[in-house]
Design goal:
23% of the residues lie in helices and 11% in strands. By secondary structure, it is α/β, with parallel strands linked by helices. The chain has a nine-stranded mixed sheet, with no helix packed on it. Residues 1-28 are annotated as: Disordered.
């Protein structure tokens, strides 16, 4: 028996029926054609303009994707504010950034990689990495840094790679610059202005595997002997650019490869005087002083005799 068709009012009532708990997608009523406003919202969300789940939007001139914020090559003169809170990889390379505000990294606890290469940085504020406990890779190459102060990387104990190369004005590394970086494996100090490097700056790095120090104007005097001795003992497990590291002074070793210097090269640094040496020097000094007095005495007598002889001749002529 055929059932009678439902009245039109019943169909309209069904189309407005609300979904119930447990309904599958096939059982839900068709919402109808998409509206322009909904399409606009979808496009905005897809473009990443709306705030992210991390609580901040992507900065202008930067791209953000999968916790990677790329602001490189944008001719920036300052660091972008308000990064996504979950940023893990931040690239600010190839810009014109001269300063980084104190506390800039405080809120970005997930930061693993920071790329600041090829900028105009002269120095970094104290405590910049105080909250960057998960930072592993730091690139500060191709800047204008002049020194690496004590505890510069304080609290960033997870650092594995630090690149400070191609800072031509870098002339001083504090003995405690890398203090506490037990996990550091790669350190690049090449092509700077370093003439001396304290052994204390490196001997506290038990995990160091790669060390680049070539291209610096090293002065291979007595003060460099402790560092070179330490490097020779670690050269098997610490890869270094030994062919590029050369001495710029003193003149007798200018141009010599840094790692070619041996203990014999620093033999003059260990010359010590014994008691016999001091006694001999004292004796020689005493003899020289007596000889000087005797010589002066004889010269005085000779001059007096000459004066008397000259005076006697004058009287005879008169």
């Amino acid at each position: 028996m055929d059932t009678a068709p439902a009245p039109m009012g019943s169909l309209q009532h069904r189309s407005r029926q609300q979904p119930k708990m447990g309904d599958t997608w096939s059982q839900l009523p068709w919402p109808g054609p998409p509206r322009p406003a909904m399409l606009l919202v979808s496009l905005i969300l897809a473009a990443g303009v709306m705030p992210s789940d991390a609580g901040s939007s992507c900065p202008v001139l930067c791209t953000c994707h999968n916790q990677v914020v790329d602001c490189s090559s944008q001719r920036l003169f300052s660091v972008p504010p308000d990064l996504p809170m979950d940023t893990r990889n931040l690239s600010l390379a190839h810009n014109r950034i001269a300063t980084v505000p104190p506390g800039y990294l405080t809120c970005y606890m997930e930061l693993r990689v920071l790329d600041l290469r090829n900028n105009s940085l002269v120095e970094l504020p104290a405590g910049l990495f105080l909250h960057a406990k998960r930072l592993a890779h730091l690139d500060l190459s191709y800047n204008n840094l002049s020194h690496v102060p004590a505890d510069m990387f304080q609290a960033a104990h997870g650092l594995v790679h630090i690149d400070l190369s191609h800072n031509p004005g870098l002339r001083r590394v504090h003995p405690r610059a890398f203090q506490g970086l037990a996990q550091l494996r790669d350190l690049d100090l090449s092509y700077g202005g370093l003439a001396f490097l304290s052994l204390e700056a490196l001997e506290g790095l038990p995990g160091l595997v790669t060390l680049q120090i070539g291209g610096n104007p090293w002065v291979c005097g007595c003060t460099m002997e402790p560092l070179l001795k330490w490097l020779r003992n670690r050269i098997q497990r610490c890869t270094a650019d030994s062919q590029l590291a050369e001495c710029r002074g003193p003149p007798e070793v200018e141009g010599a490869p840094l790692f070619s210097l041996t203990e014999e090269s620093f033999k003059a640094c260990h010359l010590t005087l014994t008691l016999d040496d001091y006694l001999f020097i004292a004796f020689v000094g005493f003899v020289v002083s007596i000889a000087s007095v005797a010589t002066n005495f004889l010269l005085g007598i000779t001059a007096n005799c000459c004066h008397r002889w000259s005076k006697a001749n004058e009287e005879e002529e008169i």
